[in-house]
Amino acid sequence: MNKYELALIVSAKIDDDARAAVVETAKGYIERFEGTVTEVEEWGKKRLAYEIQKMPEGFYYFIRFDAPSHTPADVEQRVRIMDNVLRFLIVRRDEA
User: Cβ atoms within 10 A of the Cβ of 87, count?
Assistant: First the structure.
């Protein structure tokens, strides 16, 4: 099992329940593809470096998980088409 981190920027124009649903959906994708979510960190609303889809702000979430090597590609395929996700990035974390 490798350690990964999924960074999500979620639209600031949706309500709290919809934002929570987006994060839960992403966590569900991780678990569906044999991953185990270890931590979810919410950074809150931050100003973006540049506007994305005419939005100057977004909510930042970092989801850490352990998973086999095929999981990030499968999760990325699903997150890419999710509504209200402005940007995302999956990176492999060091074992240290």
Answer: 13
CA-based nearest residue to 23, from 8, 37, 44, 3: 8
pLDDT for 96 equals 58
Strands ordered across the beta sheet of 36-52: 36-52, 55-67, 2-11, 85-92
Q: What is d(CA 5, CA 23) in angstroms, rounded to the nearest whole number?
A: 13
pTM, full prediction: 0.91
Handedness of CA 63, 68, 73, 78 (dihedral sign): negative
Residues in the chain with pLDDT < 70? 96
What's at 63, amino acid-wise?
I
Q: In which region does residue 5 sit, left (phi positive, over 0), alpha (psi from -120 to 50) or beta (all else)?
A: beta
Q: Residue 29 and residue 26: Cα distance in Å, rounded? A: 5
The length of the chain in residues reads 96
